[in-house]
Structure formats: C-alpha cells, structure tokens
Automatic annotation (TrEMBL):
Membrane-crossing residue ranges in chain numbering: 30-48, 69-87, 93-120, 221-244, 264-286, 307-326, 332-352, 364-383
Family recorded in the similarity comment: Belongs to the plant ureide permease (TC 2.A.7.19) family.
One Gene Ontology cellular component: membrane
Originating organism: Olea europaea subsp. europaea
Keywords carried by this UniProt record: ATP-binding, Membrane, Nucleotide-binding, Transmembrane, Transmembrane helix, Transport
Protein's UniProt name: Ureide permease 1-like isoform X2
Length: 389
C-alpha cells in the first residue's frame, strides 16, 4: 500500500505537467489509458499465474472460462466509474489546482467509499478507530476548500498589483481573469529575459498562455463541481471491486469460486479502457471547456510528452492493482488509507508547479493544517486494519 500511495499520488502530477505545457488533455488521456490497461495485463499474467491452480483458487487463465459473469459485471462497473472520475479530475486540476483536487476527491472517497467497504467486509475493520479517521477526512476537505479560496485571493492580489505597476498607457485589466495576454503583450510589459519566478504575477500569466485549458475568466464553481463529481465516482469503484472479489451478495453459483484480485482487476481495467477510449475520441471532435478541436490523426502524430503520459498510465495501473491487493488482505476500508495521495500530490504540486509560492501567511497556515489533518486521518485509518478470514 505504500507503493500504491506513491504511484497514485505521482501520476496526476505528470498529467498536470503536460496540461500546463499545452498538451491537449484528450491526447494525454488516450496515451495514459493504453498503459493503464497494460499494467493490469502484466499483473494478471504474473501475480495471477503464481502458484498451482486449484478448484478453490484458480489462476487467472482458468478463471477466464468460468461462469462468473455477475462478479465480472461488478468489476467492470467499478472500472467505469473510476474512468469517469479520472477523466473529470484531469479537467478539475486546471481550475482548482492539483493539491486541492486531490484533497477533495480523496476525502469524499474515504467518507463514502470507506463506509460502504466497512459494511461489505462484514465489519472486519475496527469501527471505533475507523470512523474517527473518516471524520478527520471530513475536516481535511473543509480545510482544502479554504486553502483554495485563500490562494485564489492571493493570486488575484498579485495580478492586480502587477497591472498597476506595469501600466504603460494602454488599458490593462486589474485581473487576468478579465483579459487574455498574448506573448507580445508580455514581452512589451515585462522588460526581462529571465524566466518568471514561481508565484509571481508574471509566472501566472505565462502559465495561462502555455496551458491547454484556459481557466481565467471562468468561475471556480465549475472546477469545484467537476471535483465533487469525480469524488463521487472515486467513492464507488472500490466497493464495486470488493463485491467482485468477495461476492457478498451471493450472486455466483455455489460451485463457482470467487474472482481473484488479479482477474477482477483485469476486467476492471478493460471497462476503464473502453470508456476512456470512447469519451476521449469523442472529445477530440467535440471538445469541452472551449478546448480546440483535434482529430485521431493529430493525436497519433503528437509525440510531445507522450512518454510522460504513458508513464502516468503505468503508475496509475500498478497503484490501483497494489491498492486492491492490500484491500483483499486487510480490508478494503483500511486500504482506503492510500487516499493519502494528496500528501504526495501536494509535494509534486509545490516542487514542479510552484503552487502556493509567495502566498499569504493565512494560506500557508491553512495548507499546513490540511496536510497535518491528512496525516492524522491516514494513521487512524491504517490502525483500523483487520485480517480477512
């Protein structure tokens, strides 16, 4: 689960990096989803084939021919909601930032998903420890929203101050959200050849010019709405996978063994792949959020950042697989401790993207409080682990 935590906290940072460099999200996500499926195939043909296949515990290839369609459908339903959640977060990152998106989605996932998994797992986890941890995640989501609001106010203040300082006789709006700056404008108003420093108004405007999704001028309500939708999707995929592997609703025939984690993950990833391919090819020709149109031919010829997108898919695929392995062993409610991924994402957000650089003291205090609450919540959640019989 420690590896899962690192992988699941890192892949969003890679996709965010590509969006900020101007690569279309549709192109990035199509690359990502290919290697995401590849990770499941690798896991199925390695871990899924280890050991001798028995009637009670068949290997991956043996399970493919069994009459286990009810469990397969649960696994594929989990893959569908995960794919919708991942696709939504790729757009949410542009609006509210990597750190806040990760915090809100992870908190919703733990509050809803962990509760469902607790009852599905026949209360294998200690409720008196588990639910105080869930409460800490609720506090974390409130702090995450406060961090975003405070940081957005800081950025508006920087931009307002910048436009006043560099006004040269032409009308410059007080906020970058009300105007679009061209590269010529930037060169004209900023007499420096040095790279813009993280957290400055110059940096914020250069970022707006480079990124694929233009967010200035759009209300943050859009970003938060997308984020909460993604959180709901994320909260359902683990319980669906739990039902696929443990058949708590007794949908399988008595003689049919339960799906292994590896077989379930294979079907889970197939549905995730299909939904991602269908939606993203559609978005190439009918983009959302005013993104430019593209085509499948343009996608195939776009090699700028493709390697990073493929790496992100592998990290996400192996991260999900490792999370499910941990859940099958110690209870899926406890395995939701990997939702501490905002700790990793925030680290990458600060290191790679300069998030919260030159922000106010209030923003820093809220950020520290949010991260501390996450650490406490994850520690409590992991302490609730049980042993599946």
């Amino acid at each position: 689960m420690l590896l899962a935590l690192f992988f699941l906290g890192t892949w969003p940072a890679i996709l965010t990096l590509l969006e900020r460099r101007g690569r279309l999200p549709q192109h990035t996500y199509l690359d990502y989803t290919i290697t995401n499926l590849l990770a499941a195939v690798i896991i199925a043909f390695t871990f899924g084939e280890i050991g001798k296949s028995t009637i009670e515990k068949p290997n991956f290839l043996n399970q493919l021919s069994q009459d286990n369609w009810p469990s397969i459908l649960f696994a594929m339903a989990g893959g569908i909601v995960l794919s919708l959640g991942n696709l939504s977060t790729q757009y949410a990152w542009a609006f509210v930032g990597l750190s806040v998106t990760a915090v809100i989605t992870a908190s919703i996932t733990v509050v809803i998903g962990t509760t469902l998994n607790y009852f599905l797992d026949d209360r294998v986890n200690k409720a008196e420890i588990l639910f105080p941890g869930v409460g800490c995640f609720l506090i974390a989501v409130c702090l995450g929203s406060a961090v975003h609001a405070s940081n957005a106010a800081d950025n508006e203040a920087k931009l307002s101050s910048f436009s006043n300082d560099y006004e040269d006789g032409t009308a410059i709006e007080a906020s970058v959200s009300k105007t679009a700056y061209s590269h010529h404008d930037l060169e004209k108003r900023i007499c420096t050849n040095e790279k813009a420093k993280f957290g400055t108004a110059h940096f914020l405007m250069e970022l707006e010019q480079k990124r694929a999704i233009k967010v200035h001028g759009k209300g943050t309500f859009i970003g938060l709405a997308i984020t909460f939708f993604a959180g709901i999707c994320f909260s359902l995929f683990s319980p669906a996978f739990n039902l696929a592997t443990n058949d708590q609703w007794h949908t399988l025939k008595d003689s049919v063994p339960h799906l292994s984690v590896y077989t379930s993950f294979f079907y889970f990833s197939i549905s995730c792949f299909l939904i991602a391919i269908i939606l993203n090819i559609s978005f190439l020709y009918h983009p959302v959020l005013n993104l430019p149109k593209s085509s499948f031919k343009a996608y195939l010829s776009d090699w700028n950042g493709r390697g990073w997108a493929l790496l992100a898919g592998l990290l996400c695929g192996f991260g999900n697989g490792l999370q499910f392995m941990g859940g099958q062993a110690a209870g899926y409610a406890a395995a939701d401790a990997v939702q501490a991924l905002p700790l990793v994402s925030t680290f990458w957000g600060i290191l790679l993207f300069g998030e919260y650089r030159r922000s106010s003291r209030r923003t820093y205090m809220l950020l520290i409080s949010m991260l501390l609450m996450f650490i406490v919540a994850v520690g409590i959640l992991m302490a609730s682990s049980g042993h599946r019989k």
